[in-house]
């Protein structure tokens, strides 16, 4: 950066300020000698934070304040004859006292991080590291106000990182601090380089130690840079940090314990659910919390005339009775005034320049303060972005996520809460892509979402409304339905496949209870590994559209307790048995009737036995044929008579064996006729 120092000094003398300016303000394209610095104050130049500079200037020419807000500005301080720049951005302009014809303005300058305060986003980063996310956010926000350089080692890839209702400034600082990485505003010649740092040794500011002796300001003026006051700051420190967490996919114990090596430390901080994910990350986060507590309790404040100090500078303190040694600068504050500067020489500079730095012992690690995001308790809505995966999980897209599908996955695989689940049991109704769901967060951590269930909206209409308010319904995407109808006097349960082509219906309507199992287009199969019982209190009807086949491995029994059994066929009825067939009535009659012929065929003998009563064979219209390949035997028992009759003809054998042949005419024709008898009578 080139300034017209001679022109500025001339202008300074014109307005009655110092003969030679020690501070210079350059604002974008505003002429160098237009803003003459009267006083300056720098606050909060430290790691991982925005700083603020207040500059009182006198204007040689009018400055349109609306045009300078947001412009780059550089405050330069003369350090050992060389300009030392501090790059910033104009954030506020306010009227101030002038000097004669010269108007006064008070400018507030912010660091290159100031634009991050003005940017507020809601977005989700998936499978990205904190360093990677922070670099992208910074590069988008800086937009000509600086550049980004990552010096820290690679940080772990995180499944999900949510920025929700946070400025970019809050978000970047939070996610980096968790990983022990901090922002450093390195002041190069041309602009600010925002560096992501993981260790103080990575800073160029500390490459060359700055030797400073301790000397009080009492006595004669001192012509060298020195430290004139040392203040020890004692802060309370936590003695121990304890971390604990769970990971549903790991059986590892995620508890860790971290001690602060400080005699005065006291107390224990227990942190639950910081989303450490595994033992290594739990250990690393706990170590960083302990390191931060240690350096916070070990600070010193040096007041000095040195203008070269910056965050990260390494000081070699000498001549102090107790604290000589190496110290690392962690914060710088300075102020200066040129209202009554004494002209040339270092003595004048001392009166005009005051600097205070906060330091820590050089052997201590610096860690930024990590403050977890406050828990967010409540629910959010999201949309299912992918179908269920191999672990039964879903990726979600949040309505507050400013990213689009082209920016990468919507979320990591997310669990769905179920009303029942366990090691070997559970339930799951898969959610379709595009389904709106309600989401909550484990331990209030937005990076650990859990799906609570599905929601209806303008695209997904509720299947139960005031029109069917008594329906308790489960309906799948394919049209499977399970309905429990609580409508008064129409209570029923229905289980149906699509279009009700297969259904089970259990109706409890008043006075009309009915159970129906139906397959409109397919088969119905009933199977029991053991016994099966079908029982009806009244009638039972079986209707078969085609064949009816019953296969029984053991015995089959068809029995009525009171009524009759009717077997009827439109064509034939066939009874077949591998062995015997027995028909029996215990008390009543048995009737076999055939509309056409009836045929009995026996493989080995036919026996008919009548225990009591008569046996009658009658042919109303036709012949009676009795035929045998061997003998035909008619045998009467006891006192009965054997009679063969036709018209007036009769052949009869009584119980005594007497044969009566009676007919109007008897013809006996044979080749030979033999008649034998003890007596032959003649009427």
UniProtKB/TrEMBL annotation:
Q: Which protein, by its recorded name, is this?
A: Gp5/Type VI secretion system Vgr protein OB-fold domain-containing protein
Gene3D superfamilies recorded: 2.30.110.50, 4.10.220.110, Baseplate protein-like domains, Gp5 N-terminal domain
Q: Which domain of life is it from?
A: Bacteria
| UniProt cross-references to InterPro entries, sorted A to Z | Gp5/Vgr_OB (IPR006531), T6SS_Vgr_RhsGE (IPR006533), Vgr_OB-fold_dom_sf (IPR037026)
Q: Which residues form the Gp5/Type VI secretion system Vgr protein OB-fold domain?
A: 383-456
Q: Where are the transmembrane segments?
A: none
Coiled-coil region: none
């Amino acid at each position: 950066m080139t300034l017209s120092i001679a022109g500025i000094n001339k202008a300074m003398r014109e307005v009655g300020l110092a003969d030679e300016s020690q501070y210079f303000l350059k604002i974008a394209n505003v002429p160098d000698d237009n803003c003459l610095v009267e006083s300056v104050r720098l606050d909060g130049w430290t790691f991982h934070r925005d700083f603020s500079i207040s500059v009182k200037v006198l204007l040689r020419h009018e400055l349109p304040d609306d045009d300078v807000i947001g412009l780059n500005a550089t405050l330069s301080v003369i350090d050992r004859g060389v300009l030392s720049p501090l790059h910033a951005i104009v954030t506020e302009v306010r009227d101030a006292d002038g000097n004669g014809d010269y108007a006064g303005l008070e400018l507030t300058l912010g660091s290159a991080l100031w634009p991050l305060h003005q940017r507020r986003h809601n977005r989700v980063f998936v499978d990205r590291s904190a360093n990677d996310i922070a670099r992208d956010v910074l590069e988008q926000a800086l937009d000509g106000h600086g550049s980004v350089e990552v010096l820290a080692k690679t940080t772990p890839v995180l499944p999900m990182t949510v920025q929700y209702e946070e400025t970019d400034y809050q978000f970047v600082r939070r996610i980096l601090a968790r990983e022990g990485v901090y922002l450093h505003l390195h002041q190069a010649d041309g602009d600010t380089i925002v560096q992501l740092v993981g260790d103080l040794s990575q800073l160029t500011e500390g490459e060359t130690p700055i030797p400073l002796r301790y000397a009080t300001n009492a006595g004669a003026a001192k012509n060298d840079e020195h430290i004139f006051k040392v203040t020890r700051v004692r802060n309370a420190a936590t003695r121990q940090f304890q971390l604990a967490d769970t990971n549903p996919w790991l059986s590892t114990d995620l508890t860790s314990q971290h001690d602060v090596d400080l005699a005065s430390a006291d107390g224990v901080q227990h942190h639950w659910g910081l989303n450490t994910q595994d033992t290594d990350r739990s250990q690393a986060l706990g170590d960083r919390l302990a390191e931060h507590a240690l350096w916070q309790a070990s600070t010193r404040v040096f007041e000095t005339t040195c203008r070269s100090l910056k965050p990260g500078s390494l000081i070699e303190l000498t001549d102090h009775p107790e604290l000589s040694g190496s110290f690392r600068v962690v914060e710088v504050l300075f102020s200066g005034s040129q209202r009554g500067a004494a002209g040339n020489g270092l003595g004048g500079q001392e009166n005009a320049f005051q600097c205070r730095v906060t330091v820590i012992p050089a052997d201590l690690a610096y860690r930024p303060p990590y403050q977890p995001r406050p828990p967010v308790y409540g629910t959010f809505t999201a949309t299912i972005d992918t179908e269920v995966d191999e672990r039964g999980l879903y990726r979600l897209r949040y309505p507050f996520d400013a990213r689009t599908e082209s920016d990468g996955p919507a979320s990591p695989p997310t669990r769905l809460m179920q009303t029942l689940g366990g090691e070997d049991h559970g339930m799951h109704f898969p959610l379709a892509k595009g389904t709106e769901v309600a989401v909550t967060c484990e331990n209030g951590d937005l990076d650990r979402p859990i799906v609570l269930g599905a929601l209806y909206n303008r695209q997904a209409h509720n299947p139960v409304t005031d029109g069917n308010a008594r329906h308790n319904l489960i309906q799948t995407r394919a049209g499977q339905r399970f309905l429990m109808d609580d409508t008064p006097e129409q209570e029923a349960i229905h289980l149906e496949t699509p279009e009700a082509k297969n259904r089970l219906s259990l109706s409890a309507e008043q006075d009309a209870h009915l159970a129906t199992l139906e397959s409109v287009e397919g088969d119905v199969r009933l199977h029991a590994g053991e016994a099966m019982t079908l029982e009806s209190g009244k009638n039972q009807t079986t209707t078969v559209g085609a064949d009816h086949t019953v296969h029984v491995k053991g015995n089959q029994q068809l029995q009525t307790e009171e009524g009759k059994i009717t077997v009827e066929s439109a064509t034939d009825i066939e009874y077949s048995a591998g062995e015997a067939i027995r028909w029996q009535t215990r008390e009543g009659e048995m009737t076999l009737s055939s509309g056409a012929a009836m045929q009995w065929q026996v493989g080995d003998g036919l026996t008919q036995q009548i225990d009591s009563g008569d046996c009658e064979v009658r042919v109303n219209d036709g012949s009676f044929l009795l035929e045998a390949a061997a003998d035909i035997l008619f045998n009467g028992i006891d006192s009965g008579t054997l009679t063969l009759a036709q018209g007036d003809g009769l052949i009869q054998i009584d119980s005594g064996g007497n044969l009566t042949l009676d007919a109007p005419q008897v013809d006996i024709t044979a080749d030979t006729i033999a008649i034998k008898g003890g007596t032959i009578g003649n009427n």
